[in-house]
Amino acid sequence: MNANTSRQHPAEWEEGAQLFTRTARDLPTGRHQFHKERLMAQIQQEQQEQHTGRSAAPAKTRRLRLPRPAIALPAMAATVAAAVVAGVAMSDGGGVRDGGVATGPALTAEVGAATSEGVPQLLDQISLVAAKESHPVVKPGQYVYIESKTADTFLKTVDDKTSLASHALHRRQVWNSPDGTKGWLIDPAVNTDSAGETLSLPDEQGNTPKGSLNHPTYDYLAKLTTDPDQLLALIYKETKGQGNTPDQQAFTTIGDLLGESYPPAELYSALFKTAAKIPGVVVVPEAVDAVGRTGIAVARLDETSGQREEWIFDRKTHVFLGERSVQVKKNTGTEALMKPGTVTFTSAILHRAVVDGMKRTPSQAG
């Protein structure tokens, strides 16, 4: 954190705090807490280095992953620090806000072996299966409904002491209109109200973001090219400056589309052929989703964070099951608490459907 960054104007702090709050609301479950705590720990470390006269290592620019929508970090570090001071994030009365989901010990798993052999063949098979899946067109007045089970491990800071904690496995439900202007979220790791909260736009600041890869509305996705080369070029262009590397961010972006959006059938199939063109993609023969379903994973290691992002598929049918992020390399500083084998995020998709009203589920009549 340089001097210019650490002396932002209060108006910039307030704007950044509002942006971070809006972002956290729509994150895949639990990830907002992990990123807030991880960022807070980084801020504290940098402040300590400034106090002792030591400089933070300038070797790499760290950009923490904040999927849908993304925020470039660590330029946001001072902004979020101000937000914390203002009581926007992290701690409340010595504890951590968890939306009512109890926190427990870190989630762990065996770090499975990975291989680069057979990646194109596996993704081609998955693409063929995806092309056969039923993807009804989402009409105006309808909603994309996604139900999942998720859990995560995050850095928890209380009274300047950082430790690992986790959100228990819990149910997450999201509804979104095809144009992305109306929605609802029920997730106890995010919502303080058990009934959930609105995702409808515009927000409190009057912002109505247009469809993009960071705000993947159905209408936006329906207009995207299905040519793998053109699609990958678009992903690199739209996500420039995000993530730790362009290749890792491209992989992450496709993973977010698989996990919590509703790509039309042709695009859904094309996403896997696109992923095959990203350097560094590997296969993990043994992987387990959030509800214990075993399968095979398509994955990529983020060399900066040391975490491997895994997309898990049924071994026989090649149907997408869920995602998992596992720490596979040792880290330094506060992040060394995330030891190899720590599961930072895990999910299992239970239902993905088109429904005829907000807060309705597939089992309910129109």
Summary?
The protein has 366 residues and is of the alpha+beta class. The protein has nine helices and twelve strands.
Q: Can you characterise this structure?
A:
By secondary structure, this protein is α+β, with helices and mostly antiparallel strands. Helices cover 29% and strands 24% of the residues. It has helices at 3-6, 10-25, 31-52, 77-85, 119-132, 218-222, 228-238, 246-260, 265-275; strands at residues 91-92, 95-96, 103-104, 143-158, 161-176, 183-186, 197-198, 282-288, 294-302, 307-313, 320-327, 343-355. The strands form two sheets. Strands 3, 4, 5, 6, 7, 8, 9, 10, 11 and 12 form a ten-stranded antiparallel β-sheet that branches. A two-stranded antiparallel ribbon has the order 1-2.
SSE order and pairing:
Elements: H1 3-6, H2 10-25, H3 31-52, H4 77-85, E1 91-92, E2 95-96, E3 103-104, H5 119-132, E4 143-158, E5 161-176, E6 183-186, E7 197-198, H6 218-222, H7 228-238, H8 246-260, H9 265-275, E8 282-288, E9 294-302, E10 307-313, E11 320-327, E12 343-355
Antiparallel strand pairs: 1-2, 3-5, 4-5, 4-12, 5-6, 6-7, 8-9, 9-10, 10-11, 11-12
Helix pairs in contact: 2-4, 3-4, 5-9, 7-9, 8-9
Label this structure with key terms.
alpha+beta; 29% helix; single chain; 366 residues; disordered N terminus; 10-stranded antiparallel β-sheet; two-stranded antiparallel sheet
